[in-house]
Amino acid sequence: MDIKVNVRESEGDAYVVDLTGEIDVYTSPKVKDAITELIDREHYNLVINLEKVRYIDSTGLGVLIGGLKRVREHGGSVNLVCTNPQIKKIFDITGLVKIFGIFDDEQSAMKALA
Amino acid sequence: MNPAPATTRSHGIVRLEIPARAEWVAVARLAVAAVASRHHFSVEDIEDLKLAVAESCTNAIQHGPPDGTIAIVCELDADGIVVTVRDRGQGPPLGAVAEERIGEAGRTEELGVFLIRALMDTVEYTSDVRDGTQLVMSKRVSE
């Protein structure tokens, strides 16, 4: 089990983090490192693409929450792209749908950052 | 020399023991999913079960001794599955977590507990210094 992380610059100052695989207690530090590095470089508008993520646990959610908290301190935002019904269900039952913008495609997530 | 099998199955009971380390949690959740697939659980129920077991193991790793192990016992019965996760650590108190607090950063431990309670039908938790922590949780096959 592993997670692949790809970071790419998008429109304006926004960055997209593409994740592929499973985010759990073992792999979430790798995701955290990627997000932390972006924020440390003062990139505060992020789209995290979970379309190719098959599984996420509380440690993965914690990484996303931590990232969101940090970018908000600088007036930024984190939007998510997620179509996996099981993962959407996890965001729903934890109430995280209320704090993240969750979109079906990257274009919509980018547009909402603006 | 033939190594002992990782799991032993007897009368619908499967036992698994993993090192209490992060890289082994995936093994636990996949093993429990495989056991559950012997029953008539939906794909969604199996995903719920995988996550609940993984969260239990993560708690054990975070609160147990660094060189410890986690014992997982799955018992299938006519109604569904009962999973027991046991370790030598002192787990977090599994009190109810208010939903409005979930989104607070840094509360991922409580988030894990919240998920276990939300995804399983029953959850029983015991913890003491001598015997460690035991979580017994069940899920019924959906009608």
Characterise this structure.
The complex is a heterodimer of chains A (114) and B (143). Chain A is α/β, with parallel strands linked by helices and 114 residues long. Chain A has a single domain (3-113), classed as STAS domain (Transcription Regulator spoIIAA), CATH 3.30.750. Chain A contains four helices and five strands. Chain A has helices at residues 28-40, 58-72, 85-93, 106-113; strands at 3-9, 15-23, 45-56, 77-81, 101-103. Chain A has a five-stranded mixed β-sheet, sandwiched between helices. In chain A, helix 1 packs parallel to helix 2 (58-72). Chain A is globular, with a radius of gyration of 13 Å. The model of chain A has no long low-confidence stretch (mean pLDDT 95). With 143 residues, chain B is an alpha+beta fold. Chain B has three helices and six strands, in the order E-E-H-H-E-E-H-E-E. In chain B, strands 1-2-3-4-6-5 form a six-stranded antiparallel β-sheet, with helices on one face. In chain B, a hairpin with a 3-residue loop joins strand 3 and strand 4 (80-87). In chain B, helix 1 (25-36) packs antiparallel against helix 2 (43-63) and helix 2 (43-63) packs antiparallel against helix 3. The relative contact order of chain B is 0.19. The chains are: A alpha/beta (114), B alpha+beta (143). The interface between A and B is medium-sized, with 24 and 29 residues.
